[in-house]
Design brief:
By secondary structure, the chain is α/β, with parallel strands linked by helices. The chain has two domains: 2-15 and 216-223 and 280-410, Enolpyruvate transferase domain (UDP-n-acetylglucosamine1-carboxyvinyl-transferase, Chain, Alpha-beta prism), CATH 3.65.10.10; 20-213, Alpha-beta prism (UDP-n-acetylglucosamine1-carboxyvinyl-transferase, Chain), CATH 3.65.10. Helices cover 30% and strands 23% of the residues. It is built from twelve helices and 22 strands. It has helices at 20-33, 45-56, 69-81, 100-109, 148-157, 176-188, 218-230, 253-256, 296-305, 325-334, 368-374, 398-404, and strands at residues 2-4, 11-13, 38-39, 62-64, 85-89, 111-115, 124-129, 138-143, 165-170, 193-196, 199-202, 212-213, 236-240, 262-266, 270-275, 285-288, 310-313, 338-344, 347-352, 361-362, 383-385, 408-410. The strands form six sheets. Strands 20-21-1-22 form a four-stranded mixed β-sheet. Strands 2-13-15-14 form a four-stranded mixed β-sheet, covered by helices on one side. A hairpin with a 2-residue loop joins β18 (338-344) and β19 (347-352). The termini are close together.
Length: 413
Amino acid sequence: MHLSWPGGPLRGTAHLPASKSEANRALILQALAGGGTIGNLSDAHDTQLMQRLLAAAPGTAELSAEDAGTVMRFLTAYLSVTNWRGRLTGTARMQERPIGVLVEALRQAGASISYENQEGYPPLQIEGFAAKADDEPTRLAVRGDISSQYISALLMVGPYLLGGLRLELTGHVGSRPYIDMTAALMQRFGARYSAEGNVLTVLPQPYQATDYTVESDWSAASYWYAMVALAPAGSEITLPWLRRESLQGDQAIAAMMTHFGVKTTFLADAVHLQQHAVSANTEPLTLDFTDCPDLAQTIAVVAAALNQPVEMTGLESLRIKETDRIAALQTELAKFGGGLRDLGEGRFRAESSGFAVRGQSVATYHDHRMAMAFAPLALRGPLAVEAPSVVKKSYPRFWKELAKSGFVTTEAD
């Protein structure tokens, strides 16, 4: 897809998908509760896939999570405690993404799970669940720096373990907002949850059928923040259905983008973004993405484009996402005169030298966030985005929203 901006300020209202993180959790909780209505569900591929697989599970012995990591992890736990028997698989890339930590924890809780091929990786053979003989809580300990999706998967099935769950997180805990989101949603569905430091306790009490409306997605909002930061003077955008009191850790984009000249005003049922002046700063900022790794690509691109060096920490999980996002960023930023320099010890610096947009083609590596993180550069010059359909994973209307806002979008030959 060829993408360009005709000139003048960026203005208008952009509609966002519902939060994929909230929706996927709410769907699991609804399925365990056996009822309730989930409003404002996203049309994102991952959310639609989760719905289809949950509906299909009772009548099939093979399910594919395709390339959706959240779906694979949440379903592994859900299918185990609901005594499902069958094969859970995914794409070739999914079969390269580790799941051993979650499987081992579920085995300790009573699940019968085996690996079809490589130890620690999908496909999985799930063969039911053996309840403990006593009613003491299931005691598990996992590293706090693993994917928060493993921790969330265990927490959500906690009420259905005989005696409940006592989950200890050891060492540094990453992505805490995602764990907090899971806990808050569980409580909305009637779970009895408590946390003392890094020890999380879930009592054995089934969920209640609950109606819930999903908030719009803050990670999707990050691309509009990037556009306002890179757009001509006087640009402003309104994003409906975002809350000041959000469960989403990616709301951190509002604070981060103040460094790049974007002011956020919270309205009753929306946020309003507008440019504000910031003084030039050649000293690197330091931003931590431990709790919001999905914002890293957006910030790296904006920082390079504005020649504002940023030292980025908390990027450990980026190498095992849809692609190796560190390597992908390094390759694509270099095409424009930008870079992501490895400083060692998990630190990277987004920087640039002679950054320019002159019709380059951006590879997307089967990664929706690569496509959307680089698209705002069209405000600085024409570019091409390869395999633009990857955005369907989380924001199917992304290109239509850009066109509605004034971008010129044309399909590549």
